[in-house]
Amino acid sequence: MKLWEKGYSLNKEIEEFTVGNDYILDSKLVRYDCIASIAHAKMLNKIGILDNAELEKISAALNEIIKLDSVGKFIISKEDEDCHTAIEKYLTKKIGKAGKKIHMARSRNDQVATALRLYYKDSLNEISELANKFSSSLFLLKDRYRSVEIPGYTHMRKAMPSSIGMWADAFIESMSDNKRAILSAIELLDQSPLGTGAGYGLPMKVDRRLTAKLLKFSRVQKSPIYVQNSRGKFEFVILNAIAMIMFDLNKMASDIILFSMPEFGYFEIPREFCTGSSIMPHKMNPDVLELMRARYHQIAAAQAGVMGIASNLISGYNRDMQLTKGYVMDGIEAAKSSLKIASLIIKGLKVDRERCKEAMTKELYSVKDAYELAKKGVAFRDAYSKVAGEYSNG
I need a labelling partner for 284 at 20 to 30 A (CA). Which of 7, 163, 224, 387 fits? Predict the structure, then answer.
């Protein structure tokens, strides 16, 4: 049974092409679709479509699916197409006629949008918590090595004195900004699309405020057309917030890779975090940091993919949007796993105080030397030239 079934069989090759990997991706949405369906059923009960007994049966069956899903026992087949069909099929088989009533007053379009928004909100809240933990690991590193000086670099050359504390602070402060972007994305998503049907409203009165309240949305998304037009746009906002985090992790990974090179030796990566070479017995490689650095580019590609798919479409729902789901889900998983690994690495990172001290060579203090002359009344440009001459003369 398909939700759109009309008594004919779909060509198998067409079916395989149109379903794609949706039935696999939707394993992440089962719980959210069930939660949204319970809220929808309560609304249908309120407006007289479902009686109390039917509501009780539907709610019990949906909660049963949530439990099965939590232990990996709710299976979505390719023939189901997606979790929404699999759930309704389970309901119909389990409770009969009542199960056939659940889709009244909604389309798969607003059903999908609702489940995705619930999933996105939860995922972004989880990412925000992981960002907090990462910041905490940076605070610990800062407290442990706050006073250890290291060279600061511009143009990949020694510039001015820096420190481990200053380095850690850069990522702590940036992560604070990133969390604002995550919260902004959550606020944008926090509007219920349920009750807008296929994108043009419903030919009956429904209580959208009730379902929004039950699903803990702060408001309803009023325009049914905008519900569909916002798909792709909202996904881009999510990926943009995630990209800000991954941009920082990319830069941090590059710093640690560079500063842990034997030629620098400021940082030491725990041995158990490194992999080896299949040919060179001496190698200890920072593969984990290289992969973390590369994941940012996966997110950047996902942003381009989502906006490319969503653009040039007329208003309303278009099946193209099915393909944006995987980009966002992959981006969410990349951010979660990268933040967990980043916290682990920062907690295990060691600083070689002696190597850092050795790196603090005289030229790093050239600005200070010029300022000291300026304090004695020498014009800054003359002081600059005098100090520059000392270094150019060796």
Answer: 163
- Whole-number pLDDT of residue 1: 58
Are 353 and 150 in contact, with CB atoms under 8 Å apart? no
Rounded Cα distance between 280 and 207, Å, is 68
Is the Cβ–Cβ distance between 164 and 141 less than 8 Å? yes
Helix (H, G, I), strand (E, B) or coil at 203: coil
Positive or negative: CA dihedral 352, 357, 358, 363: positive
Per-residue pLDDT, 393:
60
What is the mean pLDDT of the segment spanning 204-230?
97
Residues 6+ apart with CB under 8 A from 99: 58, 61, 88, 90, 91, 92, 93
- Spans of all domains in the chain: 12-100, 108-359, 362-392
CATH number of 108-359: 1.20.200.10
| Residue 14 pLDDT > 80 | no
pLDDT digits (tens, 9 = 90+) for 298-339: 999 999 999 999 999 999 999 999 899 999 999 999 999 999
Mean pLDDT in residue range 149-159: 97
Tell me the average pLDDT across 153-173.
Answer: 97
CA–CA dist 7, 225 (Å, integer): 30
CA dihedral 175→264→284→287, nearest 10 degrees, is: 30
Mean pLDDT over 200-206 rounds to: 96
Four-way CATH pick for 12-100: 1.10.275.10, 2.60.200.20, 3.40.50.980, 3.40.50.1820: 1.10.275.10
User: Is the pLDDT confidence value at 4 over 70?
Assistant: no
